[in-house]
Amino acid sequence: MRKVPLVDTDIIEFSTLQSPCVYIKGKQMKMAYKYIKECSLSLSSKLIQRGWRRFGHYYSAPECSDCDACQSMRISVDDFIFSKSVRRVIKKNSATRILVRKPTVSQDHLNLYEKYHRYMEEKKGWEYYPLTAESYADLYGKGHSSYGYEILYIRDEKLIGVDLVDFLEDGISAIYFYYDPDYAHLSLGKFSLYKQIEMARERELSWIYLGYYVKECDSLNYKADFKPNQMLRNNPTLEEEPLWR
After folding, report:
1. With CB atoms 3.0 to 4.6 Å apart as the test, which of 18, 119, 161, 174 could cross-link to 153 if both were Cys?
2. CB within 8 A of 53, min separation 6: which ones?
3. What pLDDT does residue 124 have?
4. pLDDT in tens, 36-55
5. What is the span of the domain harbouring residue 56?
6. pTM value?
7. Could you tell me if 55 and 94 lie in one domain?
8. How far apart are CA 18 and CA 41, in angstroms?
9. What is the Cα–Cα distance from 223 to 73, expressed in whole angstroms?
10. For 105-110, which contacts have Cβ atoms below 8 Å and span 24 or more sequence positions?
11. Which helix (H) or strand (E) holds 40?
């Protein structure tokens, strides 16, 4: 590992060894990481603009030498159209209460997370990993600084969805969303994204950063349905400008 000093903070950089790809069967993957204990809003924004993803204190990006299937995607907030189908999803959730606050961990969070991932294990063949309160906090509760929040979705007096996001300088980074499969008829995944767009407009932010689009992965290729969108066309360093098209 090598330690790179920066103004205001330190970054510890490292990479994983090659391992089976979690997105495309038969492929190998390698990830680059930056561990940043105290990451400023400015630096976090620059990293997300350049294709990095934050989980806790860690920022990660693919570092595969022979594959570029993972494409960073963002949605234009100002150009997004609230069509009839979008408004129908919003109307279905008129009784859903929304609470925005700093990330927390509770037994309700852990139970919902477990229920969702057991459901996805059966539905899409996801590999199931048990998560403790400590490991959940490491992934979603730490490193949020001033910009990380959770958006809670509540219905029938219980937690039915958790959306982890960062409010950055130019947009919202969608970190992770999980929900109660018993409420799948509410299209909560779509609804959470529409709420992000509404919140971005209220804050005069331009983009929703969706993370990676992978055409060959059923769990990620749905993102292409949200338009207009842009893909990151280069692999810039912090000193280089990102090229979105």
Report:
1. 161
2. 59, 60, 61, 173, 175, 211, 212
3. 86
4. 999 999 999 999 999 999 99
5. 2-70
6. 0.93
7. no
8. 31
9. 8
10. 105/133, 105/136, 105/137, 105/140, 105/141, 108/158, 108/159, 109/136, 109/159, 109/162, 110/136
11. none
